[in-house]
Design a protein that fits this description.
It is built from twelve helices and twelve strands. The chain is of the alpha/beta class. It has two domains: about 140 residues, Type I PLP-dependent aspartate aminotransferase-like (Major domain) (Aspartate Aminotransferase, domain 2, 3-Layer(aba) Sandwich), CATH 3.40.640; about 230 residues, Type I PLP-dependent aspartate aminotransferase-like (Major domain) (Aspartate Aminotransferase, domain 2, 3-Layer(aba) Sandwich), CATH 3.40.640.10. Helix 4 packs across helix 5 and helix 10 runs parallel beside helix 12. The chain is globular and about 65 Å long. The N and C termini lie far apart (about 55 Å). The model has no long low-confidence stretch (mean pLDDT about 95).
Amino acid sequence: MARTPATRSDIAPFYVMEVMRAAERREQQGEAVLHLEVGQPSTPAPEGVIAAAHEGLDRDLLGYTTATGLVALRRRVATHYRDWYGVEVDTESIMLTVGASGAFVAAFLAAFDAGNRVAVPSPGYPCYRNALTALGVEVVDIPTTMETRFQPTFEMLEQVGPVDGLVLGSPSNPTGTMLDHSRMGEVTRWCRDNGVWLVSDEIYHGITYDEAAPTALQYDRDAIVINSFSKYFSMTGWRLGWIVAPEALREALTRIGQNVTIAAPTLSQLGAIAAFDCHEELAHNITRYRGNREVLLAGLTAAGIDRLAPADGAFYVWACVDHLTDDSQVLCAEWLDSLSIATTPGIDFDPREGHRFVRFSFAGSTSDCVEAMRRLNEWVKRRMLS
């Protein structure tokens, strides 16, 4: 009898990784590619982090930590919440994880049983849906629109029906939109009043352009908050994230961590202790993102791609392109083939309406952003003349 994969593995691919693979093939053939698809900083980890990691290599055994992570790092995370948000967080509520991805899987395992219903707004980070589906959880889609700034409203939540959880990204990937204090208060209150676990994805905190993003912990201490050293701290490959967990889930998360990953990478934890002393260096990254954001907003608008999400934070522009195509995957493939610009089709983030949208990342260099907009404008002009 033939052996086959488990049905739970039948989940959608993460399409941006497929785009990255196609771009890599072109680069291996000697073609330079402008990377506006990848959602990671083009800068290295801060100098202080690298220095601390070198010291760890020289002096530390680099054995396992406990499942929840180094106490020294958890204390720094707790101090971070006090300094940035005015929220006192118990060190015991913090668990270091193998990236935010590991945090999501651990949180979903701890909070939800197979057959539970969890609401996820669209467009949204695809791995929410895919991980929940693989765990046997029913994903309840909440379609959002430009009019709601691609975030769920109280009215939408009221209409979603009985659910056990809500996963929310603010600032969001792919739209960059975020909830202000008023709307965050509404969402957390709705979850609390309805007995719904709120899983708040806050990995783009620190990368905002007008106002700082509120944390769900300012409104509900029982929210499950997930963050990462990947984005603001520019440490994607270090694979280190964290959960701030409500007391009811702490023991469950510890047991899951002990059995699934044992611990987050020790060297990454040693380096990350220094990350919170590097805000001045990291502020330069935000300045560059801000400039890149203006380049893309102006360049896309000039090219007639002017229905854009507000991009309050993160490093993405979510653009409606249905005047150019009815299949954003085909359009992105054409841009890669003819312009050597890598972008991400919206189907990654919204199975229903994503064919009408493209996500542009401005995490890379300013020169790449400028050149990509020049090529895109020329492409639009040629298309109009043909």
